[in-house]
Amino acid sequence: MKYYRTMTVCAAGWLAWCIVAHADDPTPAKNPYANIASRNAFGLVAIQQAPPVLPPARPLPRIVPKGYETILGPDIVLFEVIETASDRPAGKSWHALREGEAEDDIAVLCIESATGTVTFNNHGTVQKIPILDASGIGTGARP
Q1: What is the pTM of this model?
Q2: Going by C-beta distance under 8 Å and a sequence separation of 6 or more, which residues neighbour residue 62?
Q3: Between β-strands 102-103 and 91-98, what pairing exists: parallel, antiparallel or unpaired?
């Protein structure tokens, strides 16, 4: 029986100690060093974030439309792509595409045979380029 009385007294003492321990003021004590920071004795300034550095924009390949054909169904535009960027292989390539087709991240959006222009999506940039007139090309000899 003595054992139970001792356990009851210990449990009651522990419970009373827990209540008293949590009865403290919940607001923290005022920081005695806060006035030092407010004086700014060393002239401290906040760190300013530098603007993010963007990589330089890559130059787009140059598209030179050479002509179009309408003989076998839908219009097909013939064009040359001249690569100028250092991260892509340099050189020229020839393409023949219909409206809605794409190759090497270059898509033909619209072929306007009446006005002689072609609208391309060149690596995400929409470009409207006139088709070159082939009548001025020749050997220079007179007929």
Answers
A1: 0.52
A2: 81, 82, 84
A3: unpaired
